[in-house]
Amino acid sequence: MRTWAECSEAALRSNIRELRKRLGGAALVGVVKANAYGHGDIWASKILVEEGAAYLSVATAEEAIALRGAGISAPILIFGITPPELAPELIGLGLTQTVADIETAEAYSRAAQKFDKTMKCHLKLDTGMGRLGFQSAGDARLASPEAVLALTLPGLEFEGVYTHFAMSGESGGETYTRGQLAKFNAIVPELERAAGIRFALRHAANSGAVAGYPEAILDMARPGIMLYGYPDNVPGLTLTPVMELKTRIAQIKRLAAGDSVSYGRRYTAARPGRAAVLPIGYADGLPRALSNNMCVLINGKPARQIGTICMDMCVVDLTDIPEARAGDTATVFGREKGFTAEELAARLGTISYELLCGVANRVPRICI
Ligand SMILES: *Cc1c(COP(=O)(O)O)cnc(C)c1O
Q1: Mutation test of ligand 1: which of 15, 31, 78, 225 has the most ligand atoms closer than 8 Å to its C-beta?
Q2: d(CA 217, CA 257)
Q3: Which CATH number fits domain 243-367: 2.40.37.10, 1.10.3380.10, 3.40.190.10, 1.10.8.420?
Q4: Average pLDDT for the chain
Q5: CA 276 to CA 63: how far, in whole Å?
Q6: Quick one: which atom of ligand 1 is closest to the CA of 225?
Q7: DSSP H helix total and E strand total for the chain
Q8: What 8-state DSSP symbol labels residue 14?
Q9: What is the pLDDT of residue 137?
Q10: Do the domains 9-227 and 243-367 sit in the same CATH topology, yes or no?
């Protein structure tokens, strides 16, 4: 095989078990949006359900519909707003929709009534993320009248209520995160009183909150990145990166002093040596911005990437790995210290999430 993403079932299962231990009696939502952060959403969903996840969640209706098509019957929460035209599909497939504004809520309600059905919903409150959700009216801790109105619409069954943290994964985010949680905890009972309902599922915690804010776990928690093994330094949680992105040496080149490599001649050999052509490039999800600024692992040794990363290939310096041969495996990121997706992402000024979900569709996922 040319280039592949090896996904470890054992690592995923072990991460889920670690997280379930941390959650105690609270339910686990397995976040499988964006193809399970690049790992394969059907594969990850099946394992999550086997390991006791009570819920799955995705970003879009299309992602949810595809999981149902693959035979996944667990409850699925859609985080994003679905166009009301798709309401009959959501209802027919028993999907749970986020409700974050009154106009869309009214459209869902009309659609549900038209089919004489009920749509399962979770109300989303914006307590300070500044993204999707009902905003608080006037006094920051008062429930929005529009949210109350949404809760009383016919055809909608509000099973849950949730919010999302802006700073739970950031150092120095404690005051802000506690403020968001306090606001949520104040608004929810008010909504329940005003609308005369009771939410079965209150949830707020993403990975950052599961790591640092046990009081935010509530009835249910929604860790995403931690399922896939990042960050790997949370005290009391042993997480293992699930994906290793690997490729194989396609060709070995001689380099004379002064020889240049790849487009733009952005690397010139200072000494005679050897280089390897790797069949992985930015169309596989290896960002071009990492050119001349990363290493891969070959035979347990770091090989510096040299020259511009191309669409389908890149080149690495093999001078100090004389035993390497064409066909040998190179790990682009994986579990080895110094070679994790998180460390590679840091070189690029981004986060592990972006590298993981950037692994292209053409890269086969090999489940081991
Ligand atoms: C993506 C997402 C999560 C998971 O976030 P992680 O940082 O990966 O744990 C949880 N909740 C919502 C609403 C999300 O969009």
Answers
A1: 31
A2: 59
A3: 2.40.37.10
A4: 97
A5: 38
A6: 8
A7: 11, 19
A8: H
A9: 66
A10: no
Q: Is 263 a catalytic residue?
A: yes
Q: In which order are the strands placed within the sheet that holds 273-278? A: 251-255, 273-278, 314-317, 301-306, 295-298, 329-333, 243-248, 3-7, 365-367
The per-residue pLDDT for 140 is 65
Tokens encoding 280: 């992985």
| Per-residue confidence (pLDDT) for residue 138, from 0 to 100 | 62
CATH architecture assignment, domain 9-227? Alpha-Beta Barrel (3.20)
Ligand 1: distance of its center to the CA of 353 in Å? 11
CA of 165 to the centre of ligand 1 (A): 9
Copy the structure tokens of residue 231.
Answer: 């960050």
Domain assignments of the chain as residue spans, ordered by start: 9-227, 243-367
Strand, helix or coil for residue 249: coil
Cβ atoms of 159 and 120 closer than 8 Å: yes
Residues 208 and 223 sit within 8 Å (Cβ to Cβ): no
Give just the sign of the alpha carbon dihedral 26, 32, 37, 43. positive
The secondary structure of residue 264, as a DSSP letter, is: G
Strand 295-298 and strand 329-333: pairing?
A: antiparallel
Structure tokens at 182: 């306090």
Ligand 1 pocket by C-beta < 6 Å: which residues? 31, 33, 79, 164, 206-207, 222-225
Q: Which atom of ligand 1 is nearest to the CA of 79?
A: 13
